[in-house]
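During data preparation, a discrete fold description was generated, and the record follows.
___
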Amino acid sequence: MTYRVFFLGESAGVIGSHDFEASSDPFATAIAFLLSDACSDLCYGFQVWRGKQRVASLWPMNGASAGVAARMSADARKAALEREHLILLSRSRVSRSKKLLARVAERNKP
């Protein structure tokens, strides 16, 4: 199924979005959580939509997000990692996340 995550800024306004495939609403929500956490220097929450139906929303993200992210499934973490580079290329406000840029750069070091 196709989902869209909307990244929410400090005032809950949309600062970017990303479309992705996931097998279920909970799996899509896990991916959205991990992506939002990866750019949490700019992103304060998210919404996940499947077509016209909102399936998840979290704003603001709490300070314990790193602990929650570490407990996500390996499949969700892998799916999120595969999408981080695409978000950097999106030219949206969230693509300017220094935290996200550092994560992608670290992963791509030889």
Summary: The longest strand covers residues 14-21.
